[in-house]
Fold this sequence. Notes:
Elements: E1 6-10, H1 15-23, E2 29-34, H2 37-50, E3 54-59, H3 65-79, E4 84-87, H4 103-131, E5 134-138, H5 142-145, H6 151-171, E6 177-183, E7 186-187, H7 189-197, H8 201-210, E8 218-219, H9 220-233, E9 241-244
Parallel strand pairs: 1-2, 1-4, 2-3, 4-5, 5-6, 6-9, 7-8
Amino acid sequence: MFSSDVLVGIKNTNVKFADRLNKRAADSLAELSNMNEKEGREAEKELNDIGPGEAVFIFADVTKEDDIKNLINKTVEKYGQIDCVINNAGQHPEYRTIDDYTAEEFRKLFEVNVLGYFLVSKYALPHLRKTEGNIINNSSMTAHTAAGWSSMYCATKGAVSAMTRALAIDEAKFNVRVNSFSGGNIDTPLSNQFINSTANPNETGQIFNNISLLGRRGTAEECGMTCLYLASDATFSTGIDIHVSGGAELNYACKNVKTKGFWPNSFLKKQQL
């Protein structure tokens, strides 16, 4: 388990996700990064009120190299070391085909979902090598199974998974582990915002639940527990990816793109069949 470890969570702040790590750390320390300063400060206060670990918020845009340098430098100045990095910042664009996206939109998505992971890893690794720490990347089941109307997003998550494996090879000589987890449909504010934007939110929510063999969406806490395992107990695991998917990738399903049962025809309000 953690013991006075310095955990840097580069993420869209999710209190439930971070709290799961914080509760299992006797006196661990966490640095939280977020582009929304108000949300970041609120998360910092809530986590510190819950305890037992300490949370410190530092504003950062993961696409800005200077912001990442500042984040890493301030962490080391305050705590003297870094033991684990969780790259969790990301965006999911609207469901559209490649015809309806511009090169600039793809470029911006890539900067958040891939370049951000690269920058954080690059500047944290000199410190992780000293502590023989580890990196955990938030990938996605779409990196493995793909998804309709999501070619750009799938491309970015595929890049994250490939980078995870390649970094694991490079950093093994320093005893630094690099792993990832791939979530299926997870109950998050972003996911709920999308569900509520569809023509029939209740029906869409049930469709999301039905993708999993377990008949529900995963939780941020379950993703946090997966990261906790990778960070502290999976000491002989590197270059691996853990599916937090409820078995969504298993069994047969409706894959006929011409039917209403095909994902995402089943919930796209603008799709005409």
